[in-house]
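Continuing the batch. This is chain 6 of the set; chains 1 through 5 are on the previous pages. Same settings as before, nothing changed between runs. Recording input and output for traceability.
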Amino acid sequence: MNGKKSQNLIRVLSLAFVLTFVLAFWYQPVTAYADTLDIKLNVNSKTLVKDKTFELKVYNLSDDQTVVFKSDDTTVVSIDPNGLITALAVGNTIVTATIREEGKTVLSLTCDVTVGLPAISVKLVQPTIFVMVGKQAMLKTILQPLNTVETAKYSGYNSEIASVTTGGRIIARSVGFTYVFVAIDNGKYDLCRVFVLDESTYLEVLENPDYDTESLMREMIRQQLAINMGDDATSDDADSGTNSDVSGNNSSAVTPTAAPTATAAPTVAPSADSSK
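Output for chain 6:
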């Protein structure tokens, strides 16, 4: 009987030893993973125009951790020790950020990088847009070449009348006349005349393709000058305002020093938000 008890005791102790070993073995990797759980890149994918740069950043590193960057294809992009990516040639590659601690790799993060062609020209499809106050309209922009990866930059002349988002959406804020611009990195740009109208005037323009937009523009400019300069503003001031200097206030992109009067037939924008 004592022999059997001894054998059972040995079995129990052996099982306890095995369980302790297994738990200890599985516990360590969980702890190491938890230490790296919050580490991340500022982007997981990036599209760059050839010859442009972008800084890849690693967040939430501990004081004991270091990062080593590597490009899978150094003919497409290079990356320096600080994470600065330089787009060298059109193509696709992967950049890897390897996190090391005490001489061991604890985590690897990757970023997909696409390098494409720059734009050489930009054109707005609508030279003139009518928008009802309080509504929105989407600009249509053509970049050449069509396979460029560059993004057009939009800006507005008077955001109190109409502002424009980075994606080219016009937001009509108050009745008036203004300009919206689109530009690309090589300095080329195009512009669009924007009429923000009350509902009755908007519907009148919508129903009449021969509406006298030049007279409407002059009247709106006269009214704006009267507000900005006082009642001394004359109709002559309004007429000169059609070619007035628009190089200033609210434009963050390249803008012309004088906005020409568009002669093409205007396009009536839908009164409701046309994009999803």
